[in-house]
Specification:
The protein has three helices and nine strands; from the N terminus they run βββαββαββαββ. The protein is mainly beta. The strands form three sheets. It has a five-stranded mixed β-sheet, covered by helices on one side. A two-stranded parallel ribbon has the order 2-7.
Length: 237
């Protein structure tokens, strides 16, 4: 798909720490906290993860390695027979993205368990049968106290940690606002595919994400985040 010639559509991306949204939360005109973004059918779960990290960095633990972003599709349930005035929604699990991608060193004491941790970051909205007007809900699951990746089953349905509010004393405050072109799918439209970094450092939409890229082992010193002032040094090309 050529994103330069294909017009994007608006997607409402809902987020919550520690829990999924209940379907009935979408029955009201006052929707839960969310971010409206412009994207395309080939947008992946990995892209959505970086959009959340870039636009709402205070929601992401610091360091972010081992955090699971679990996604669900929320869509109107046309089979509902509850009445014409009561809108009902159905839920479909889409998969999850694990920061660090379940790579080596995630749990050195249990290498066999590591093999069962898979990331479905390459799944696209098209793969999920997304239709314009549907919603995407994301449950942000920080690592467990022992540092292991939280299973999807640990996500409650309903109020999470602050119900979409930032977890206290974690993450960083936003370093600035995004321009219109950066807000289209969370990154620069001229470079729609720039999500991953072949090196080890920080990357993400607009280079402002709080997720360190590359293969990092637990206990290693993470790179310093990009400076937030005006003196940012030479821009990478």
């Amino acid at each position: 798909m050529d994103r330069h010639t294909t017009p994007p559509f608006m997607l409402r991306l809902f987020y919550r720490t520690g829990a999924f949204h209940r379907p009935d939360e979408f029955n009201t005109s006052q929707l839960p906290p969310h971010m409206p973004i412009y994207t395309w059918p080939d947008c992946t779960l990995t892209e959505l993860t970086y959009i959340i990290a870039a636009l709402k960095p205070s929601l992401v633990p610091n360091p972010a390695i081992g955090t699971r972003f679990a996604f669900r599709l929320i869509f109107p349930d046309t089979r509902s027979t509850s009445g014409p005035t009561s809108s009902k929604y159905a839920v479909k699990d889409l998969g999850s993205v694990i920061v660090g991608n379940g790579g080596k060193g995630l749990d050195p004491n249990d290498p066999e368990a590591e093999k069962t941790i898979e990331s479905e970051g390459d799944k696209t909205l098209k793969d999920a049968k997304f239709v314009v007007g549907d919603f995407i809900s994301c449950a942000i699951l920080p690592p467990l106290p022992d540092g292991s990746v939280a299973p999807v089953s640990s996500a409650r349905v309903g109020r999470g940690t602050g119900a979409a509010e930032p977890r206290s004393a974690i993450g960083r405050t936003p370093s600035g606002s995004f321009g219109r072109r950066q807000q289209e799918n969370g990154n620069d439209r001229d470079r729609p595919g720039r999500i991953r970094n072949s090196g080890r450092g920080y990357d993400g939409p607009g280079n402002r994400g709080s997720i360190p890229m590359g293969e990092w082992r637990r206990g290693e010193r993470l790179p310093e985040p990009p400076p937030t002032g005006r003196d940012r040094g030479p821009r990478r090309t």
